[in-house]
Amino acid sequence: MAGRFLCRTTTLLTRSQVPAGPRFFSRTEPESLTLRRQTNGIRRITLNNPKKRNALSLSMLESLREDILTDVDSQDLRVIIISAEGPVFSSGHDLKELTSAQGRDHHTRVFRTCAEVMTLIQDVPVPVIAMVNGVATAAGCQLVASCDVAVASEKSTFATPGVNVGLFCSTPAVAIGRAVPRKVAMEMLFTGAPLSAHDALLHGLLSKVVAEERLEAETLAIAQRVCQASRPVVALGKATFQRQMSQGRDAAYVTASKVMVDNLALRDGQEGIRAFIEKRKPVWSHLAEKACD
């Protein structure tokens, strides 16, 4: 099971033709739309266009996709954190790219790429955490909703205001409608009115709300906890969670029951059980290999 999932991820890498890079890489040129750095298993990706409110332009989306996919199957990568420079996490799509002058083909490419990035976040084998410290609107709110975990400062707000400029937030609604109750999503979509961080937490868009000065520490604490677990076990669990959530109850139990058995067959699955019985800390291999019979 884990092997099949890793093969799927490798296919994504090949299709996107992302070049292999060093284990620890920092892309810090001033013109970079995103910044990427990685240490101790934690990859930090920062949206880096605050002058344009970190709009998810086509170029920004492509840069974000590359930063997620590069070396995604490396054992050194355990978790990804997405954050942003400036007071706006992301204002959504760049509306200048969506005028009629750009043409239908360009519009199609923008939304196709956006959907690929949002789907990719849920398909990669490591957890992706949004660290939000400011405004997240439209596709920016979609990005938060697409992440596996989302931590925000108390000052952060979330909205889908597209209806107010004549462009209903239909694609953000895909992710948001799966994160919050239907009627909350519909009110957001119909009115464009923002949710406070605490209301976003109440309705399930966020995992945790903290004081601004605690945001980084709290987010890193979650990431570090993820790093303590076995990579293939986390990968298998994430893939299974996403799959069973789209199924009916009975089918979901069939899927999850089979995966529990597959999990037990992993080397790290048996190591964890032995460590518990022997009252010691597990020593993970982080390899998606079956235990010896």
Key traits:
single chain, alpha/beta, 10 strands, six-stranded mixed beta sheet, 293 residues, globular, 11 helices
Instruction: List how many beta strands DSSP finds.
Output: 10
Q: Identify the strand order in the major beta sheet.
A: 1-2-3-5-7-10
Please summarize the sheet with the most strands.
6 strands, mixed
Q: What is the H-and-E element order? A: HEEHEEHEEHEEHHEHEHHHH
Global outline: globular
What's the helical proportion of residues?
40-55%
Please identify the structural class as seen in this structure: alpha/beta
Poorly predicted runs of 5 or more residues: 1-29
* Gap from first CA to last CA: 18 Å
Overall mean pLDDT score?
Answer: 91
Beta content: 5-15%
Q: Taking Cα atoms only, what radius of gyration do you get, to the nearest Å?
A: 20 Å
Tally of contiguous helical segments? 11
What does the model show?
With 293 residues, the protein is of the alpha/beta class. It has 11 helices and 10 strands. It has helices at residues 2-16, 58-69, 104-123, 139-146, 170-176, 182-191, 197-203, 215-227, 231-245, 249-265, 267-277, and strands at 34-39, 42-47, 79-84, 88-90, 128-132, 135-137, 149-153, 157-159, 195-196, 208-210. The chain has a 6-stranded mixed sheet with strand order 1-2-3-5-7-10, with helices on both faces. A 4-stranded mixed sheet has the order 4-6-8-9. α2 runs parallel beside α3, α4 runs parallel beside α5 and α9 packs antiparallel against α10. It is globular, with a radius of gyration of 20 Å. 37% of the residues are buried. Mean pLDDT is 91; it is low at 1-29.
